[in-house]
Amino acid sequence: MPDFVSIRTVLHGVDVPTLRPGVPSFLGVPLATTAADLEAADVAIIGVPQGAAASPGRDPGEWSDCGRGPENARRQSMRYTGYLPELDIDVFDSLKVVDCGDAEIPDGDQETAIANTAGMVERAVRAGCAVIAVGGAVPTANYAVARGAALATDGTVGTVGLDAHGDAFDTLGGPFGNTKPGPGTWQRRLWEHCQNVDPAHQVEFGMRGPRNDRQVFDTYREKGVSVYTARRMREMGVAAACAEAIPRATDGMARTWISLDMDVLDIGALHDWGDEPLGLSGHDVVEVVHEAARAGADVLAMQFVAPDSPAAARLAVYIAVYMMAGLVEGGHLPKPR
Fold it and tell me: Which end of the chain has less Cβ packing within 10 Å, N or C?
């Protein structure tokens, strides 16, 4: 009896590889263990198993277990195929998807964690793969993913962001951050450290509410970041917001990456997890990611996949599959063979 039986096992006899005991590959896809595996693939899945530090207004341990998010998403992915009936697309008909396993996150060594994650992303992108990173916490699950993509890209990198709040402080005091990339500061550090990541080609979806501070909004205005608050998206409708905003992050870019902080979701969007009111629905988030991928965005960093929420893990799988469908619809993959 195999360790895991996925719906694809039942339907197609596909064996499910395991990364380690108790952890299947994402969607049961093959593991990538060599450079040749990446060269033969179209999409690389990368886990970023880092927990979150304490932050204002949260219990100290509330998100400390976010490092378990990638393995929980992999387990929940056993429920799913790659077929989307509303689009009549099976992503596995067009794409070879591989699971690269997890970035090594040494305890207490943030710089090495960033370097390890960025290195995995850079190698995958240089091999011609789109990347879907499932994590994990700031700054490894976003800054490091973007850094790896930027290092592998000759030309300007645009950003499609989904987040309840802005992370462009220059510095934060006390235990909550400093001038290194971290909670609240990672976007500004990314612009400084990766000069080809251009804030003038950055779009932010879903900001709202009093967890924000005016200085970040002012920084966005100064740098040319386009902000579509959750309220503005409700007024416009998600399709119209995507049609207007996404080209600002994709047109003329050598690459576009998507930064998805799961707190962009409304507090009621998931029955067993929620962080902030007045946010986006699961449908809204899937639609933004799908439309960005159709327009060419080929690196996705999902942050804060809640460790104890099956619903959050299932939504993460939906987001990944719809991103891959967007790449297929947009004609951006597969690479020639």
Answer: N
